[in-house]
Amino acid sequence: MDLLGLGSPAPAPAQPKPVAKPTDFGLGAPATPQNAVTDLLSAAPVTNVPAPLNDKEAIKKHFLANDQGLCFEDANIAVNLSIQVNHPNAILSFNIQNKTGGILTNVGVHIPPVPFLAVQSKPGATQINRGEMTVFQFALRVRQPFIDPPSYTLRYTWSEQSHNEVLDLPFNIFKFTAPFNMDYNNFFARWGQLTSPAQQATASFNPVGDPTNQMKQVMTSVFKVPVLPLQVPPGNVCGAGIINAEGGVLGILCRFFIENGKCNVQIKGTSPQITAAVQKVLDLYLK
Fold it and tell me: Annotated region Disordered: where (predicted)?
């Protein structure tokens, strides 16, 4: 699928056949609406959302629960990243603004090839006049589970001086999570099947305000998993989500509950790799 209008890419590996039982998480990749990518790429540039200036950990944490924000700034440029998802694809837009009183040249953003992501790029203008901006876009799709995203390179030339910044991409695999509907019996049957310690991530945190609402917020904003309407006791929140990768479908089951005044998190993944990614996100977000 040509996501950015660059011609037909190489054929993707064959998708596994769908499995009828929803508890197997065996779903084929959903079809992409015809105009979905066009709509994403034609969206107006987003407004800068403040993030702690060039604090790598703070920027990563900001983007765990947010899909737009300032990801880099210096005396010459401000870079705002916007992430828009149309399952199973994600569009990353780097909006680069010229803050100088002159012209920036050799402007570019590069995400290097990695085995776990399919990447298509749509370059922006390599020259930015005073007070203007340009947009570099990338269409990403998961090929296989990953824990750490790739780095990316930001470059420009100002006043005959070249600037090259190698930065951590503030992006994680759970941006690709799609809702997965399950009833009470299917959810807890599948939960009971995932018994390996390597397939369970855990954490706990002290609630601020309404604990149930806070648990729902973490589940939906950080892991993109909607709350399932299950008949569970008060103070319990459950959800399920899938990630359609080229190498197969990945699934996560979430149980958040209140115990001894704390919010407890239990998330099970269908593979140790996806579970390790969950644990890393939890550790950073709740740090």
Answer: 1-28
Q: pTM of the prediction?
A: 0.81
Topology classification of domain 56-171: Immunoglobulin-like (2.60.40)
Predicted confidence (pLDDT) at residue 223 exceeds the cutoff of 60: yes
- CATH topology agreement for domains 56-171 and 175-286: no
240: nearest Cα among 223, 258, 217 = 223
Q: What band does 87 get if pLDDT is binned at 50, 70 and 90?
A: confident
Amino acid at 203: A
Per-domain residue ranges for the chain? Answer: 56-171, 175-286
Instruction: Note the pLDDT of residue 14.
Output: 38
The pair of structure tokens assigned to 235 is: 């103070």
Average pLDDT over residues 225-245: 96
Q: What is the 3-state secondary structure (H, E, C) of the chain?
A: CCCCCCCCCCCCCCCCCCCCCHHHCCCCCCCCCCCHHHHHHCCCCCCCCCCCCCCHHHHHHHHHHCCEEEEEECCCEEEEEEEEEECCEEEEEEEEEECCCCCEEEEEEECCCECCEEEEEECCCCCECCCCEEEEEEEEEECCCCCCCCEEEEEEEECCEEEEEEEECCCCHHHHCEECCCCHHHHHHHHHHCCCHHHEEEEEECCCCCHHHHHHHHHHHHCCCCECCCCCCCCEEEEEEEEEECCEEEEEEEEEEEECCEEEEEEEECCHHHHHHHHHHHHHHCC
pLDDT digits (tens, 9 = 90+) for 142-163: 999 999 999 999 999 999 999 9
Percent of the chain with pLDDT over 90: 79
Alpha-carbon distance of 258 to 245, in angstroms, equals 33
Range with lowest mean pLDDT among 28-42, 179-193, 266-280: 28-42
